[in-house]
């Protein structure tokens, strides 16, 4: 931090560590627009961009922006159709995002498949990361179209989940009601030596009133009857696994992360994954601590700063780490519903919503880029001059 003649601090090195503005700007685009706005007011400001994510959609993009190498493979989409999916690699670390293979965004517009959508492609993505030589895999979960308890993923990795006729169970969570036998002895042996990190912001259990089907099933098109069917099918899935694999399969249902991504988290835990809050994992993987040390001011943000932000979302994680390092944090966003006291408690001193420039949220979404540049210029006037 440098000071002017009055002793007032002027930040000359800014770290932009923001998440995407969903539906408008990627995290990298947010950083670029903020940097452009800052430089309109302070041309010599040094801006370091470190796009971030919380383990859900955008996690691979954040890794790529931080210098990871992009790898692309063809895998099964949530309905079984081939889709192109990307993951990121740097050294022996891979960042894999389940939404690339099994995400809700991959379904045709207006189509939902709560009973039949499968995570098989997510297992294929993990196998591709192993083929790439990964010894550490950051597995981001979120944005899923699925509620199959990760059964599809397990099958893609070599598990046998069979019905009463000895045939593989059909795709999707609904078919788990027909599961009669589970054999995990054929799982890819490389999984035993890889550090699999389950990165997410969901601590729901697998089943029950706070479970994957009850809480998140409706977002994926599940009716109340579907939710009842899926929850019972997941419970049956666990019973079979506990009988054929061991009692640990039952114990894992209540572990943090088990209910993530329609129960995909549960299957990852069964593979030996360790759960960590997504934003913490992403910040560590991207080298946030070193970038933070270089910064005088940190700018974070996401599309909507609201109550959900405080529960493991990227801006809250960035702000917590920055506050611990004694750095000032301000935020940009599309809209803001958090009161000033909640922002301060989270470690954010000021927040700048696009709606302060344009009250119509539809226009804000359509013109997010130019509006964000204007907002960043205003921020620069207040914090950099």
The tally of domains stands at: 2
- Estimate what percentage of residues fall within beta strands: 15-25%
Fill in the CATH topology of the largest domain. Glycerate kinase, domain 2
Number of beta-strand segments: 15
In short:
The protein is α/β, with parallel strands linked by helices and 385 residues long.
Describe the structure.
The chain is α/β, with parallel strands linked by helices. The protein has two domains: 118 residues, Rossmann fold; 221 residues, Glycerate kinase, domain 2 (Alpha-Beta Complex). The chain is built from 15 helices and 15 strands. The protein has a six-stranded mixed sheet with strand order 5-6-7-8-11-12, with helices on both faces. Helix 1 packs across helix 15. The N terminus is likely disordered.
Main attributes?
Rossmann fold; 2 domains; 15 helices; disordered N terminus; Glycerate kinase, domain 2; about 375 residues
Blueprint of the fold:
Elements: E1 2-3, E2 9-10, E3 13-16, H1 27-41, E4 46-49, H2 59-65, E5 69-76, E6 82-90, E7 93-97, H3 99-102, H4 120-131, E8 136-140, H5 151-156, E9 160-163, E10 179-183, E11 195-200, H6 212-216, H7 224-244, H8 248-251, H9 264-270, E12 274-277, H10 278-286, H11 288-294, E13 297-305, H12 314-324, E14 328-336, H13 340-346, E15 350-353, H14 361-366, H15 368-383
Parallel strand pairs: 3-4, 3-13, 7-8, 8-11, 11-12, 13-14, 14-15
Antiparallel strand pairs: 1-2, 5-6, 6-7, 9-10
């Amino acid at each position: 931090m440098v000071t002017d003649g009055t002793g007032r601090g002027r930040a000359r090195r800014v770290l932009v560590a923001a998440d995407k503005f969903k539906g408008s700007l990627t995290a990298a685009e947010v950083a670029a627009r903020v940097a452009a706005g800052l430089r309109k007011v302070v041309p010599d400001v040094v801006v370091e961009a470190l796009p971030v994510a919380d383990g859900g959609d955008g996690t691979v993009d954040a890794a790529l922006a931080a210098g990871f190498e992009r790898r692309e493979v063809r895998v099964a989409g949530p309905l079984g159709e081939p889709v192109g999916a990307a993951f990121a690699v740097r050294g022996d670390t891979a960042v894999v995002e389940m939404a690339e293979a099994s995400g809700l965004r991959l379904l045709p517009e207006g189509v939902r498949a709560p009973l039949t959508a499968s995570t098989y492609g997510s297992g294929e993505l993990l196998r591709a990361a192993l083929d790439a030589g990964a010894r550490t895999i950051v597995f981001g979960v979120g944005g899923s179209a699925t509620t199959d308890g990760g059964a599809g993923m397990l099958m893609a990795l070599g598990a046998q989940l069979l019905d009463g006729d000895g045939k593989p169970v059909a795709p999707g969570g609904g078919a788990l009601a027909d599961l009669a036998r589970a054999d995990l002895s054929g799982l890819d042996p490389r999984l035993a030596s890889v550090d699999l990190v389950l990165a997410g912001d969901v601590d729901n259990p697998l089943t029950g009133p706070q479970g994957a089907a009850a809480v998140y099933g409706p977002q994926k098109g599940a009716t109340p009857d579907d939710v009842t069917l899926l929850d019972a099918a997941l419970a049956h899935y666990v019973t079979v696994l506990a009988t054929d694999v061991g009692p640990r399969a039952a114990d894992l249902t209540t572990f943090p992360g088990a209910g993530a991504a329609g129960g995909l988290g549960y299957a990852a835990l069964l593979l030996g994954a360790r759960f960590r809050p997504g934003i913490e994992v992403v910040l560590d993987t991207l080298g946030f601590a070193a970038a933070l040390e270089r910064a005088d001011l940190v700018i974070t943000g996401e599309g909507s700063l609201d109550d959900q932000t405080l529960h493991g979302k990227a801006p809250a994680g960035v702000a917590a780490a920055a506050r611990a390092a004694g750095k000032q944090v301000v935020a940009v966003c599309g809209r803001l519903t958090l009161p000033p006291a909640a922002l301060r408690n989270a470690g954010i001193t000021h927040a700048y919503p696009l709606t302060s420039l344009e009250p119509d949220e539809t226009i804000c979404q359509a013109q997010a880029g130019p509006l964000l540049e204007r907002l960043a210029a205003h921020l620069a006037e207040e914090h950099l001059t």
